[in-house]
Amino acid sequence: MKQGKYFFTSESVSEGHPDKLCDQISDAVLDAALKDDPNSRVAIECLAKTGFVVVAGEMTTSTYIDIQKIARDTIKAAGYDKPEYGFDGNTCGVIASISEQSGDISQGVTEGDGLHKEQGAGDQGIMFGYASNETNELMPLPIVLAHKLLLKIREIRHAGTLPYLCPDAKSQVTVEYDNGKPVRVDAVVISTQHLANAAHDQIRNDMIEQVIKPICGQWLDENTKFHVNPTGAFILGGPVADCGVTGRKIVVDTYGGHGSHGGGAFSGKDPSKVDRSAAYASRYIAKNIVAAGLADKCEVQLAYAIGVSDPVSVLTHCFGTNKIPEEKIAELVKKYFPLKPSDIISQLNLRRPIYRKTASYGHFGRDDPDFTWEKVDKVEFLKQDAGQLGTPEKTGEDVPLDGM
User: Smallest Cα–Cα separation from 169: which of 106, 211, 107, 223?
Assistant: First the structure.
């Protein structure tokens, strides 16, 4: 764990950011498939630019998906429903190119097919989960504040309180740490798209008084720096200003740069893809370890081979903050938590149409019952077992499982 004073910065982007817009479309297609066919195999990507979106990928499902309607509804829900924004879900083109999942992949993922009888991982790869006790959400403070700033802007925009606000926005928060603990916010950056008739001084004042101070108030001091639309104007935004692509905001989706990242994106992927399900399981494990008081910070790595059910490696790392030996924590992970893809999907109840709302403002640290990977239901088991080092306890099969 880094000691002494240092600064750490995380960013977030709004639902109207072009990359996030594409994430939401990809996950909206996934939700539509899972709603009628929970066993759907989905890997959908999206690209958005001026006047059109492209939805492409692979999908095997028994239901009909109206790609045009889903894309348009998602675009309008994100706020692009007026021509003056330069991008309008009512009039933009929607191009779709979707084929079935490769049979070579399917035989490794479908239970009973291929070389392995159990459901295997949908791809090879490494996934990380992280938790820290520095916030109530057990998340790093910079990313929590960055998300909350944009959620506040979203609330104001939807309420119509500041009618000049447009859908695209970004935030960035720099937190000063001392010996690994956050002590103050050093800088806040907000860039929010606006109509041409809005004055910069008015936008700056509104953002500071109505957004930054209500969200970051307790962390601010006289030395905190505010940067609001630092170029002076942000009129052209969304897919008109920047091409959007699914899966390009993976650090915004996770921990804001704290911990490690395996590189795999989440949106548009059904839970047979361990890029998504194992990343959720890793967070579930890390959060319960920290919530149980076994460590102040915890990172969990899971690694898989395509078509193989057991992970090829499981690692827990607590950055020197662990209260019991890390070897014991590793034993508890294997004992109490789902690690095979089918067990992860079952215990976290992932074959549900819950994913569109994960696609903006972060997949972790959210207070939503559908985000089952945020539960801390293994805390008492971990505490009890940690207090009896080396003493056999009941097996993982005896632990009550959510969604079973």
Answer: 211
Residue type, 83: P
Distance CA 15, CA 2 (A): 33
DSSP state of 208: I
Q: Which of 286, 262, 287, 284 is nearest to 275 (CA)?
A: 262
The backbone torsions φ and ψ at residue 88, rounded to the nearest 5 degrees and listed phi first, read: -135, 120
Phi and psi angles of residue 186, each rounded to the nearest 5 degrees, phi first: -90, -35
Residue 139: burial class (beta carbons within 10 Å; 0-12, 13-18, 19+): buried
Grouping H, G, I as helix, E, B as strand and the rest as coil, residue 342 is helix
State pTM to two decimals.
0.91
For residue 399, count CB atoms less than 10 angstroms from its CB and return exposed for 0-12, middle for 13-18, buried for 19 or more. middle
- Integer Cα distance of 369 and 379 in angstroms: 17
Read off the amino acid at residue 89: G
Looking from the CA of 272 toward its CB, the CA atoms found within 13 Å total 25
**Count of beta carbons in the 10 Å neighbourhood of residue 213:** 13
CB 26 within 8 A of CB 359: yes
Walk along the chain (404 residues) and give the pLDDT tens digit of each residue: 556 899 999 999 999 999 999 999 999 999 999 999 999 999 999 999 999 999 999 999 999 999 999 999 999 999 999 888 889 999 999 999 999 876 545 554 555 554 455 666 667 789 999 999 999 999 999 999 999 999 999 999 999 999 999 999 999 999 999 999 999 999 999 999 999 999 999 999 999 999 999 999 999 999 999 999 999 999 999 999 999 999 999 999 999 999 999 999 999 999 999 999 999 999 999 999 999 999 999 999 999 998 888 999 999 999 999 999 999 999 999 999 999 999 999 999 999 999 999 999 999 999 999 999 999 999 999 999 988 544 333 333 333 333 32
For 131, how many CA atoms within 13 A lie in the half-sphere containing its CB? 32
CA distance 375 to 283: 10
